[in-house]
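in:
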């Protein structure tokens, strides 16, 4: 698989103007020494908290910002120092959708989607069938004559997507494209982006601070912090074994983890057996866990947690109440500890006096 976009040692610095309150004039590094490849035909999620440099990075990808240092390659061409006239040709192959839709209020849905075709010099007789095709593809063919103000947020975003696809771009950049939408509409838009990728072969780059967006559609995730890439890799691997503290915090919002101390205390009050959290993954699915407990004569029931699906693979954490002899439970957990994360949950009040061993927690197996 070849890279359609490559960044090599890219930094973007913005000067800070002095003021009466602050005389700081040193530049701010919005993007700091980023080297990254985006493979053709994939869906890539670029994730980070506010101020991480995500939006600056996406503007570097389409040439709206030029790097202070380093090079940006699009389809093998270094766009870092191209004159504006040549940059416009590159941008014609890059579609862009936005959080606030950025539709032209004075134009109908048809007019909004037709606009980039007119700018590109399409003959009039070819514009209508192309717009009709796009509106049918995104599911709003019946809204052709409507104005944006008459549309829901989801419908407006579909107009934005149709407009971004007008010139059949090879790359589609989605900058926080679902942040202003409700959960159900977000799912619809994500399914549409995935369809664009699968059916049209378009490379999709999703800029987001929402880890569930990455979980739903992305092949690869790139985690940014303070302008730098702190972690990158296949989505399942990153979710299963996050390395950086930032990634761990993000993943915890989308994948069930171990219960907090207060929850453990409540669970212990309701369940007299031993509480143990088990990492559920491709290498340790729930049937394997259940069979291991059964083989050792250990009774088990799930009392907390959940399992989700990432790239068609299961991932999550389940907390079990275990009953049986200590020796049987220890043997079962030792066996499971060879393939997944195992953590005994001890109520806070009991920790100081507990003689129950705390098993080491190996990383959940990734790919």
């Amino acid at each position: 698989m070849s890279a359609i976009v490559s960044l090599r040692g890219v930094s973007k610095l913005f000067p800070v103007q002095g003021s009466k309150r602050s005389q700081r004039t040193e530049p701010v590094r919005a993007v700091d020494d980023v080297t990254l490849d985006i493979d053709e035909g994939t869906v890539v999620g670029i994730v980070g908290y506010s101020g991480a440099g995500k939006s600056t990075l996406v503007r570097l990808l389409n040439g709206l910002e030029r790097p202070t240092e380093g090079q940006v390659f699009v389809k093998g061409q270094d766009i870092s120092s191209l004159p504006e006239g040549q940059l416009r040709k590159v941008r014609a192959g890059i579609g862009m959708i936005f959080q606030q839709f950025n539709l032209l209020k004075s134009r109908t849905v048809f007019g909004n989607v037709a606009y980039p075709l007119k700018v590109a010099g399409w003959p009039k007789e070819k514009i209508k069938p192309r717009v009709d095709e796009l509106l049918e593809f995104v599911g709003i063919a019946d809204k052709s004559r409507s104005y944006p103000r008459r549309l829901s947020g989801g419908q407006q975003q579909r107009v934005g997507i149709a407009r971004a696809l007008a010139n059949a771009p090879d790359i589609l950049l989605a900058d926080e494209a679902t942040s202003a939408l409700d959960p159900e509409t977000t799912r619809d838009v994500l399914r549409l982006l995935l369809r664009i990728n699968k059916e049209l072969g378009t490379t999709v780059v999703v800029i987001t601070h929402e880890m569930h967006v990455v979980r739903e559609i992305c092949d690869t995730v790139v985690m940014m912090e303070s302008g730098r890439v702190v972690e990158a890799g296949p989505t399942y691997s990153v979710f299963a074994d996050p390395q950086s503290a930032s990634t761990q915090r993000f993943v915890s919002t989308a994948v069930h983890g171990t219960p907090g101390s207060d929850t453990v205390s409540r669970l212990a009050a309701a369940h007299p057996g031993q509480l143990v959290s088990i990492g559920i993954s491709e290498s340790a699915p729930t049937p394997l866990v259940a069979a291991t407990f059964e083989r050792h004569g250990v009774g088990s029931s799930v009392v907390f947690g959940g399992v989700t699906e990432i790239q068609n693979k299961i991932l999550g954490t389940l907390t079990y109440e275990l009953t049986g002899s200590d020796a049987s439970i220890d043997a079962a957990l030792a066996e499971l500890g060879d393939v997944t994360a195992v953590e005994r949950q001890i109520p806070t009040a009991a920790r100081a006096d507990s003689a129950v061993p705390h098993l080491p927690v190996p990383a959940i197996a990734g790919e």
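note: Residues 3-16+25-251 form a domain with the Rossmann fold fold (CATH 3.40.50.300).
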